């Protein structure tokens, strides 16, 4: 083994995190390296009020309240949580300076840590250019308002985006066709100057989360289930996963959502899609769940941020509770958008 020279050692030192910083970060990670603490942290982060009591957290497990208090103290000692006593209860919330970091941990790092052991990543298909060219030509014929070179650009961008998020390579071409078609529809709507005279405007809702593999997929399916063709529904992810979570997929199947992919192909019914500017521009309402900072803020749009737990990290009972929470929120939003809805 070749020893490092002094100059190369200095070079490595310049790229590495400093020892003091590494020690501080390691202490925080050590405090998080306990399943119950992570569950409690996720419960606090996804609470609609942003704060939870010891008694509420004790329902997550069979341990006693003193044990819960011990774990919360560990998280307080490293600065992750703050506490506020009101009456006989102590309310815990995430320290504001840590809010973004905790969201990143729960919405991006945690799902990646789970998926990386199960999901192979791809490098794309060989000799795919002819298939993409044919796809672009077909879309140009179907959407004469979009130039053929723009169709080709959208197709190639869609293919590249789906390759980056991973997934089964055999499905890349049909997924690309569906995603590119949806993008062109959204772009044409977004760029239209006005609707045709006498046309009935259907509100368009975009549900966005980080992975588009759980919350946003389920919310979109529930909206389609209740709204039918009265609302145009889209979902997307700021960092889409390779596949929809298995537990969520089962719920989507139960909803019987045959329009989830506009009946293109059963393969494309449920799949994570990247967030695009056109999807935001075409939407009347944008609902974010854990990724508000990643979504463009455009004038004239209605934005809502829903504090909803992540099904990827939840128990079966937790997934059911998340589904019920989304069900209530979706029905309330639909009643607001389409007042005659009962």
Automatic annotation (TrEMBL):
<dbReference type="InterPro" id="IPR023485">
    <property type="entry name" value="Ptyr_pPase"/>
</dbReference>
<dbReference type="InterPro" id="IPR036196">
    <property type="entry name" value="Ptyr_pPase_sf"/>
</dbReference>
<protein>
    <recommendedName>
        <fullName>HTH arsR-type domain-containing protein</fullName>
    </recommendedName>
</protein>
<dbReference type="InterPro" id="IPR001845">
    <property type="entry name" value="HTH_ArsR_DNA-bd_dom"/>
</dbReference>
<dbReference type="InterPro" id="IPR011991">
    <property type="entry name" value="ArsR-like_HTH"/>
</dbReference>
<dbReference type="InterPro" id="IPR036388">
    <property type="entry name" value="WH-like_DNA-bd_sf"/>
</dbReference>
<feature type="domain" description="HTH arsR-type">
    <location>
        <begin position="17"/>
        <end position="117"/>
    </location>
</feature>
<dbReference type="Pfam" id="PF01022">
    <property type="entry name" value="HTH_5"/>
</dbReference>
<dbReference type="Pfam" id="PF01451">
    <property type="entry name" value="LMWPc"/>
</dbReference>
<dbReference type="InterPro" id="IPR048716">
    <property type="entry name" value="Phosphatase-like_N"/>
</dbReference>
<dbReference type="InterPro" id="IPR036390">
    <property type="entry name" value="WH_DNA-bd_sf"/>
</dbReference>
<keyword id="KW-0059">Arsenical resistance</keyword>
<dbReference type="Pfam" id="PF21234">
    <property type="entry name" value="Phosphatase-like_N"/>
</dbReference>
């Amino acid at each position: 083994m070749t020893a490092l020279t002094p100059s190369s050692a200095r070079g490595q030192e310049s790229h590495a995190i400093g020892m003091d910083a590494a020690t501080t970060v390691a202490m925080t990670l050590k405090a998080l390296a306990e399943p119950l603490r992570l569950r409690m942290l996720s419960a606090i982060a996804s609470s609609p009020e942003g704060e939870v009591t010891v008694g509420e957290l004790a329902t997550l497990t069979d341990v006693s309240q003193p044990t819960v208090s011990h774990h919360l103290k560990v998280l307080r000692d490293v600065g992750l949580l703050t506490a506020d006593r009101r009456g006989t209860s102590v309310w815990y919330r995430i320290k504001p300076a840590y809010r973004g970091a905790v969201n990143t941990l729960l919405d991006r790092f945690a799902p990646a840590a789970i998926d990386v052991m199960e999901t192979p990543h791809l490098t794309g298909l060989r000799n795919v250019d002819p298939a993409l060219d044919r796809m672009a030509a077909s879309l140009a014929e179907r959407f004469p308002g979009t130039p053929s070179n723009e169709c080709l650009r959208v197709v190639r961008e869609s293919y590249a985006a789906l390759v980056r998020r991973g997934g089964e390579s055999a499905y890349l071409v049909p997924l690309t066709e569906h995603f590119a078609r949806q993008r062109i529809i959204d772009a044409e709507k977004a760029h239209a100057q006005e609707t045709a005279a006498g046309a009935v405007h259907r509100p368009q809702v975009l549900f966005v989360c980080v992975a588009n593999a759980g919350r946003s997929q389920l919310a979109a399916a529930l909206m389609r289930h209740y709204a039918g063709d009265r609302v145009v529904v889209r979902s997307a992810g700021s960092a889409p996963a390779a596949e929809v979570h298995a537990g969520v997929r089962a719920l989507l199947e139960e909803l019987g959502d045959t329009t989830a992919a506009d009946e293109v192909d059963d393969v494309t019914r449920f799949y994570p899609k990247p967030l695009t500017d056109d999807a935001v521009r075409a939407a009347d309402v944008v609902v974010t769940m854990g990724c508000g900072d990643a979504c463009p803020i455009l004038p004239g749009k209605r934005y809502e941020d829903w504090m909803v737990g992540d099904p990827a990290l939840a128990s079966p009972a937790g997934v059911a509770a998340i589904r019920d929470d989304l069900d209530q929120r979706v029905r309330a939003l639909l009643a607001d958008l389409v007042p005659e809805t009962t």
